[in-house]
Amino acid sequence: MTVVNADTLRGGDFFRRGEFDLIVTDAPYGVQHGSRPHGGGNAGRLSRSPVDLLAAAVPVWQPLLRPGGALGISWNTHVAGREQLAEILEAHGFTVRDSAAYRGFEHRVDQAINRDIIVARKD
């Protein structure tokens, strides 16, 4: 196992193309934590939604996965919709898994967090 304490947008600086079969992440929930994405309309400002961060990170992660690899993301549905995340993933060559088996994870953590996961396969 290798641990790198760095901005996820620099993943390509530390890992080779096609190095991973699976990338799993827990996106900021927007309650106590957010992100400061470098690109997009909110560049540099604290964002409570993971959408800007994921829009910047998915193109970095995509080449790190082998063909047929998968990406799993957990997030707070109160700050971003599944459709928003699916659009980002599909725009970067992923197929979102959408069967009942992949839609059965949503659950309430507390009043401010309703957690779900989205899984997508690299085509």
Write the layout of secondary structure elements.
Layout: H1 11-14, E1 20-26, H2 51-61, E2 65-76, H3 82-91, E3 94-96, E4 107-110, E5 113-122
Parallel strand pairs: 1-2
Antiparallel strand pairs: 2-5, 3-5, 4-5
Helix pairs in contact: 2-3
Keywords:
123 residues, alpha+beta, Rossmann fold, 5-stranded mixed beta sheet, 5 strands, 20% helix
Task: Describe the overall structure.
This protein has a single domain, classed as Rossmann fold, CATH 3.40.50.150. The relative contact order is 0.20. The longest helix is centred in the middle third of the chain and has 11 residues. Strands 1, 2, 3, 4 and 5 form a five-stranded mixed beta sheet that branches. The chain is 20% helix and 29% strand. It is α+β, with helices and mostly antiparallel strands. The chain is globular and about 40 Å long. A hairpin with a 2-residue loop joins strand 4 and strand 5.
- The CATH top-level class label: Alpha Beta
- The number of distinct structural domains comes to 1
- The secondary-structure element order is HEHEHEEE
Strand percentage, roughly?
25-35%
Number of helices: 3
The overall pLDDT, averaged over residues, is 85
CATH superfamily: Vaccinia Virus protein VP39
Summarize it:
It is built from three helices and five strands, in the order αβαβαβββ.
